[in-house]
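In the current project phase, we have settled on a layout for protein records. One protein thus recorded is set out beneath this paragraph:
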Amino acid sequence: MTSPVEQHDVLLLDLDGTLYRGEQPVEHAPDAVVRAVAAGSRIGYITNNASRSPADVTAALTGLGYPATSGDVVTSAQAAARVLARRLPAGSRVFVVGTEALAAEVVSAGLTLAGGADDAEAVVQGHSPKTAWPRLAEACLAIRRGVPWLATNLDATLPTERGELPGNGSMVAALRTATGAEPEVAGKPGPSLLAEAIRRTAATTPLMVGDRLDSDIAAAHAAGIPSLLVLTGVSDAHDVLTAPADHRPDFLAPDLRALFVDSAELRPGAQPDWQVTSADGELLLAGTGDPHAALRAMCAVHWATGGGTVRVAAAGDGAAAALEALGLTADVAATAGSSPSVTVDPTPQPGVSR
């Protein structure tokens, strides 16, 4: 057996939805990370959230039982500051929409802070729960004047213990609507944040681990590294099954205990306890056992035919129970030989971030 911990020298771990939700740790995650470190893994804590400094992130992580130092933390604020420093002359004035932590990274990169739209030579935008209209208005004026606009990330939501709340992407959308412009993105799903993390950790065989297909897994594709999706946060079985090619993970698991499971078992592919057939836009699942193994089997068959919208049906009680556990059907468990079905569409419902 060769597990992800054995195969990869650095684990790049997303935070929100992967290690914690709000102020609560994700079940099994602290023990898994402690065990991985004890086994010799190096950890890079990767966050698209630019609202906190590495020291603040470290304090939050250690308070939840994760082994971490400030040097282990890589934020989209750091990645954004590095991008700006490469693009702008030293001392250039940057208007910051975000927290003091983002402003501090901009200054540490050799740039200065703009007071408003009139003297701004660039705009950088990161998440802050205190962002208000006056700040957005100044950014709008600067962007409409044509200065470069950099977003730390485009995450529409942030997972918390109370549910998903507006993220930086929602605030970026307001400026996109007001200006007609499109920002460059320093964080996930672009490659810059992971490139910064790989540079800082000196990783040679990194693995990206996250809960969002559209940021964590897409970023891994963009950076050219393998990825593991855990179903503890935003993306669910529906999203995985219908994911486009550049959002599909190399490995799929319910939670971080998978770091110690044989990697071959985690790959989407044929599963000994499940049989999947595809015909006329429908996947027929038969068998019994681990629902997540069933999902891996369905993904492999459906992705091989191009993916997209599909109907899933159960042949028997075991398959019906697996689909119900995965949230892929609201039907009651089927009797042997029957085939209840549900259509799985890749288009999210209005107001729902996937």
